Amino acid sequence: MSDTDLLEPTRTRTRTRDARRTPTPLRTECLRGFPPLAGLVVFCAMSLAMAAKSAEWMSSWGETRTLLHLAATLVCSPLTAAAGCWQGGREHRRRTLDLRATAARGAFAQFWPAALPVALWSVAGYALAAGAALLVNLPYAGGSGPVVGVLLADAVFLTVCALLGYVAGRLVRRRLAAPLVAIGGYAGLALTANSAPDGLLALSPAAGFTSESVLPVWWQPLAMTGWQAGLALAVVLLYGAVRRTAVLVPLSVAALCGALLVHGGPGMWRTDPVTRQQVCDTSTRPAICVNAMAGGLLPEVRAALLPMIERLEGVRNLPARFEDGPGEPGPEEAQLPMLRPLGWHARRGEISSPGLYRREAATALSQWDCPHEPKGDERAMRTKAAVDDWLAQDSTLLAREREEEQWAADRGDEEWLADIEADRAARRRLTDMSESERRAWLSEFFAARASCDPKDVPVL
Amino acid sequence: MPLPPRPHISLSALTVHHRKTLALDALTLDFERGVHGLLGPNGAGKTSLIRVLATVAPATAGRVEVLGHDLADRRALPAVRRRLGYLPQDFGFYPGFTVREFVAYVAWLKELSRETTGAAVERALERVGLGDRADARMKTLSGGMLRRAGIAQALVNEPDVLLLDEPTAGLDPEQRVEFRELLRDVGRDAAVLVSTHLVEDVAAACTEVTLLAEGRVAYRGTTEQLAALGADPAEAGDHPIERGYTAALRHHRATAPSAAGVTR
Amino acid sequence: MNSSTPVNPWPLTGRLDGRLLYARSRGLPLALLVLACLALATAWGAAGPASFLDFERRVPVIAAAPLLAAAVIGTSLHEHSAELDRTAARPWWLWRLVQIGALTALAAAALALAVPGRADLFGAAAMVRATLGATGIAAASATVLGARLSWLPGSAYIGAVYLRTPLRPGGAAEWWAWPMQPGPQDAAWTVAAVLFAGGTALYALRGAKAEPT
């Protein structure tokens, strides 16, 4: 056996181990220095922005995707650009410009391991926060789900910001460069997202989800990505000065995608078909239908309305269902009190004040079912109010009534006091009825809804 | 073929302007294999020369050839830079990197292949005696260790041309002795240019001395010749080389009209 | 470098008054210039027909201007020779306090004057409060991260709560979304005042974190 036979395997093994131990530039740049901090800052900012608005997006995919997009583009992207700028200023701060100038690798090759880590960490911070928001929503959100394309396009935008920020940081050696990029970015993006003409608005990465119920056409995120990435790559190529003509390729991609976006304009956003759908619980009478965008809230809504529904047992002439679709409720339908925008009645998958919600539902239930609401008749109004209050069983309502009474007494407003007393008497009469008597009376009351004549409202 | 037939470094009429100041004035010089000391008072143009050779600063006029390539030809630069080692006077570094990571980063910048990088980094660190601190962060190193890390990064590609600007600043006497040994070792295959103020380093490690003054060559010769110039004990200085240095400088100032610096 | 005395472009340079030299060592002339430009830009951004009713135009300006002022003040806390400074006989805390206090007062006054219209609806009051709070954060950050990076935490925080322009002012949001309150909310003022006092005190006592130059 020759020496080489003996030596060869060992040598290969040491070499592979060495190669593995050898720190590659990208890995080193990712683990050391500023980029991890940038990722942490982006994660914190993203989480804080989402947490601050949690009442308004939790339980709705529509709101969640809108807010994720806004938080990524308006909050995280200026920070990422500033982080890139700071990283770009590093060579100047650390006085390594001379060392880099003697490197065999050109500016373009040097650019990537130095600039990419900030982008990677920022995207990681964003992805973590966005993923957490999506997970939180998973158990009870309704609607058509997050738009993966937009999530990815936003991640690309963060990358673009980091890379462009790096170039800016390399070129502008001022201490205020990075904060200027961050704060100018905030103000600039906020202004373009709000008040740019339609054509240009389509090019703004921050624009897009104008409401929870719109979705982009499938190619919008692609075109947005091409537009941003093309521009960024062109700038990086110019900075790296590999071959000036190479700039034309990404520039033409950017121009093509930009033209697509401008041409698409507001037409790139269509109504989410889910907003026209409802999910219903037909086990109750009236049945409860919730817009599919907030479908996850159905059990909560049912629980909130249940005390009222129990009191309606055996009553005839009721609307068939509460509806929550677009447009006015049809005949035999009552409008479900507004669940969206979130943050008012519904927050974080719960009905924040079930009594108040029930009172609004009762009002909707006893609403006149006429093309034009008949002119107010005091007796009919008082009767309706008594029915609504009795159905809602809202303790805060009674407390408020006592407060009003106190106030009226303090001001010596006899008329108001009499009014309150009359309300109370009407409610008492309703409570004092026997079960069967009340069922019959309520059936008659609800029958009057459709007649559109206040005189048909039964006497209480 | 281990070596190109031409000198490692060849300058002809190299002129460098910094704004209005003339830093190098029509310098014509060759540097062969071996260790060359670059001496001179502050502002003599030592750093300017090294920065031009390191391909960091451009020449205002004249021709610079390194390893057979004209530095004016931008396409030749990568080939030169691959064979170049450079320790700047103001050595900047990334404080968060470990020593190994930093040297490996420079190896990548010099386009060493991935397979050879690991071994090259180890060897460079061993040569400067930093093998045991390879995994320490740069920011935790003392001044002397930082200097050695700087030398290690310059050595990592086993350069044919090694440019060291004030490499011994911050080294303790023992480290300096080891460093001179290292210089002699590297100088066997490569052209090493050491700019320094410490004449003992020159006396001990350099085979040849170039004395710059006001952007011109004030003296050129072997170390022994310079020492011989300082044989007269009346000359200012405590060491033969020191005396030789003063004598050469005085002679240069007496004979050459002050061309450089007139615009200052 | 080594030229005969050049024509002096700055009236402040060349005089050997310690206070002026201190100001120059901190780059205060430039900081003042930037603050002045910022106030002008703010006035321009907040002006325009009925812009005080136009939150979409006004709130970005109200959020960005104090942040930028704080960034200018924060980066001016940089010490070029921290080692040397720490051996000085003069009481540094006093100089630091005067520097940050004077710059903040100046910035707050200039920005408050730059926003026309009602003071209590994203106007002068919100501007002063945001400037105080943001400067406090920047000063505290300077002691932890170093003066040059002192803009980062404040920018991240205010950027993040920026989306939380309140549906209804008040509630718990007054405490943590203090930069986005329209005006006279007590809790928001308390937070901003505490941040400013705390950050300034911390900086006065500890100074900016030493950075490798």
TrEMBL record, chain A:
Transmembrane annotation, as ranges: 37-55, 67-86, 107-135, 147-169, 176-197, 217-239, 246-269
Native source species: Streptomyces polyasparticus
Protein's UniProt name: Integral membrane protein
Bias (Basic and acidic residues) ranges: 8-21
Lineage: Bacteria, Bacillati, Actinomycetota, Actinomycetes, Kitasatosporales
Keyword match Lipid metabolism: no
Annotated spans, Disordered: 1-24
Keywords: Membrane, Transmembrane, Transmembrane helix
Coiled coil location: none
Automatic annotation (TrEMBL), chain B:
Record keywords: ATP-binding, Nucleotide-binding, Transport
CDD domains, A to Z: ABC_drug_resistance_like
Pfam families referenced in this protein's UniProt entry, alphabetically: ABC_tran
InterPro entries reported for this sequence: AAA+_ATPase, ABC_transporter-like_ATP-bd, ABC_transporter-like_CS, P-loop_NTPase
GO molecular function, one term: ATP binding
Keyword ATP-binding tagged: yes
Ranges of residues in domain ABC transporter: 9-239
Stated family: Belongs to the ABC transporter superfamily.
UniProt protein name: ABC transporter ATP-binding protein
Phylogenetic lineage: Bacteria, Bacillati, Actinomycetota, Actinomycetes, Kitasatosporales
